[in-house]
């Protein structure tokens, strides 16, 4: 379950975000709210949330100043989602340069909210609360030796139920979803780091290097070596 803080000087905006989180069964718990920038800064420092919904235009400190001050504390783990009206959109663009994950434009539309959350958290949500929590668990622990039965036990359901949910919402098996996620993470590491391939395989959850090569080639069409050499040549 992700923990979130909402900072906005309009109570209606705060309540709307809380409502949308509940409506879409998102695995997010709102642990704090603020109506001014200085208050938001203190709450963020004290509660250390994973996600912050942050209005640009607030009293005392604006949203950009809050992000800057948090980043100065070397806290880059928070996903900031900036909220703004069209008239302040240029400031929102600045927030992206400061490391904000995404922008929500007022008035916030439900579809826009869901699309933003899927981009920020990295996967598509369902309308099933338990399955959303399973997805959240997998996306946070893909590097571990995740088993279907383990997920079922954690969320007090059956393996067959989770397997059906993967077929229903993603049209793939549990293990295919996990492999796809791991290979996508491996591709990012191959593109952006100089890590040896065997270390990347281990980092994304593969203890068997041969199996990693097999799954990588099936998903990407070439081996990790060829993929990496192609990047170097470019």
Automatic annotation (TrEMBL):
SUPFAM superfamilies assigned to the protein according to its UniProt record, in alphabetical order: CheY-like (SSF52172), Homeodomain-like (SSF46689)
One of the GO biological process terms:
phosphorelay signal transduction system
Sequence ranges assigned to domain HTH araC/xylS-type in this UniProt record: 132-230
| Superkingdom of this protein's organism | Bacteria
As one GO molecular function, the record gives:
DNA-binding transcription factor activity
Q: Does the keyword Hydrolase apply?
A: no
Response regulatory domain spans which residues? 3-121
A Pfam family in this protein? Response_reg
* InterPro entries per record: CheY-like_superfamily, Homeodomain-like_sf, HTH_AraC, HTH_AraC-typ_CS, Sig_transdc_resp-reg_receiver, Tscrpt_reg_AraC-type_HTH
- Spell out which residues are annotated as carrying 4-aspartylphosphate: 55
Q: Which UniProt keywords apply?
A: DNA-binding, Phosphoprotein, Transcription, Transcription regulation
- Annotated function: May play the central regulatory role in sporulation. It may be an element of the effector pathway responsible for the activation of sporulation genes in response to nutritional stress. Spo0A may act in concert with spo0H (a sigma factor) to control the expression of some genes that are critical to the sporulation process.
| Protein name, as recorded | Stage 0 sporulation protein A homolog
């Amino acid at each position: 379950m992700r923990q979130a803080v909402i900072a906005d000087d309009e109570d209606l905006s705060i309540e709307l975000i809380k409502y949308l989180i509940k409506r879409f069964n998102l695995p997010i718990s709102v642990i704090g709210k603020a109506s001014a920038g200085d208050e938001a800064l203190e709450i963020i420092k004290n509660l250390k949330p994973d996600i912050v919904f942050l209005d640009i235009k607030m009293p005392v400190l604006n949203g950009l100043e809050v992000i800057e001050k948090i980043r100065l504390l070397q806290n880059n783990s928070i996903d900031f989602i900036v909220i703004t009206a069209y008239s302040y959109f240029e400031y929102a663009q600045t927030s992206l340069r400061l490391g904000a994950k995404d922008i929500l434009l007022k008035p916030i539309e439900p579809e826009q909210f869901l699309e933003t959350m899927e981009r920020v958290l990295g996967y598509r949500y369902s309308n099933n609360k338990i399955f959303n929590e399973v997805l959240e668990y997998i996306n946070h622990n893909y590097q571990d030796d995740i088993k279907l039965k383990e997920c079922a036990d954690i969320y007090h359901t059956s393996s067959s139920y989770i397997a059906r949910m993967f077929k229903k919402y993603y049209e793939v098996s549990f293990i295919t979803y996990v492999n796809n996620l791991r290979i996508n993470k491996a591709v990012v590491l191959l593109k952006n780091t100089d890590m040896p391939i065997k270390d990347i395989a281990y980092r994304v959850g593969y203890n068997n290097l041969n199996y990693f090569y097999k799954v990588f080639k099936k998903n990407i069409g070439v081996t990790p070596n060829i993929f990496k050499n192609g990047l170097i040549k470019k």
